[in-house]
Specification:
The structure holds 2 protein chains of 2 kinds.
Chain A: H1 6-27, H2 33-38, H3 48-69, H4 81-97, H5 102-111, H6 115-139
Helix pairs in contact in A: 5-6
Chain B: H1 2-21, H2 26-33, H3 42-61, H4 83-99, H5 103-109, H6 115-135
Helix pairs in contact in B: 1-5, 5-6
Classes of the chains: A mainly alpha, B mainly alpha.
């Protein structure tokens, strides 16, 4: 079980949106994490610098929040290591073939009313739901 | 250099949003999709909040001739809904549903020092790198 947190989730979502708007306003870039990560991998993009800096900020944020507020950040993962590896590979291949992930298609692309992003988001939301159902209710957990 | 600093600060805002919203927590993500079980609808509020701010913000920002730190906006130009898009999105969802990690959730989770996030991200980076090399 996880608690229903409408207010903090809405506020956190608004911050994700603010980051997307700022990245467009300042850098003219879509805040798609899959694409930003891809650009620092071979063949490395010429503009890898801002990508690395953005990712460093994203990684530093939770550690800073904990250090400054002394609040814990809820995190729980029960997936066995082998399935974490399988999941990571599938996600990596999928977001690269599909040109985006939850942030790139689901937030930035949907906000632009991009038909490609709407189609991609509907597709991955459906397959995620099916996978969770199969894993939890048919297989009975990993 | 100033572009690196602004990107770092924007990354901090993004990571804070992911942490505050609960997207950083794979259990919460999986529960959002588990309508038939321990359903937690919180993530609908994450998507809602992010979409409202981004949709309004983009409309204002894209009226400018160019972004502040670059000479032009870099917007996707492709329009066609093709097989790689749908197959890739379908695969991504299958992977997301296994462990509850998506790229935007897993990168900030590295900052929690969680081994599960590190294993997932290392594997995801391999998947992205290999696919990029094959498709270049």
């Amino acid at each position: 079980m996880t608690d229903f947190t409408p207010l903090t989730s809405l506020a956190g979502g608004a911050l994700i949106g603010l980051a997307a708007v700022l990245l467009m306003a300042l850098h003219g870039r879509i805040a798609g994490i899959a694409g930003i990560v891809g650009g620092i991998l071979p063949p490395v993009a010429a503009d890898w610098g801002w990508r690395a800096a953005f990712l460093a900020g994203a990684i530093a944020a939770p550690a800073l929040i904990i250090a400054l507020t002394r609040h814990e950040i809820a995190f729980a993962s029960t997936t066995p290591t082998l399935w974490l590896i399988v999941s990571g590979l599938i996600v990596g291949v999928g977001v690269t073939l599909g040109s985006g992930c939850t942030s790139g298609h689901g937030v930035c692309g949907m906000a632009r009313l991009s038909a490609r992003s709407i189609a991609a988001t509907l597709t991955f939301m459906a397959t995620t739901g099916i996978t969770v159902y199969v894993v939890r209710h048919i297989v009975g957990g990993l | 250099m100033s572009r690196m600093i602004t990107a770092l600060l924007i990354g901090l805002v993004f990571g804070t949003g992911i942490a505050l919203s609960g997207m950083i927590n794979p259990a919460k993500v999986l529960n959002f999709f588990d309508v038939a079980g321990t359903w937690d609808p919180s993530l609908a509020f994450v998507m809602g909040g992010a979409l409202i701010v981004t949709a309004i913000g983009y409309r204002l920002v894209l009226k400018n001739p160019a972004p502040l730190c670059d000479t032009s906006f870099h917007l996707p130009t492709r329009k066609e809904i093709d097989l790689p898009l749908l197959a890739g999105a379908g695969l991504f969802g299958a992977g997301w549903g296994i462990a509850g990690f998506c790229p935007g959730g897993s990168i900030p989770a590295l900052g929690l020092g969680e081994p599960a996030a590190m294993i997932f991200v290392a594997s995801m980076v391999c998947g992205i790198a290999v696919t990029r090399l094959i498709r270049r």
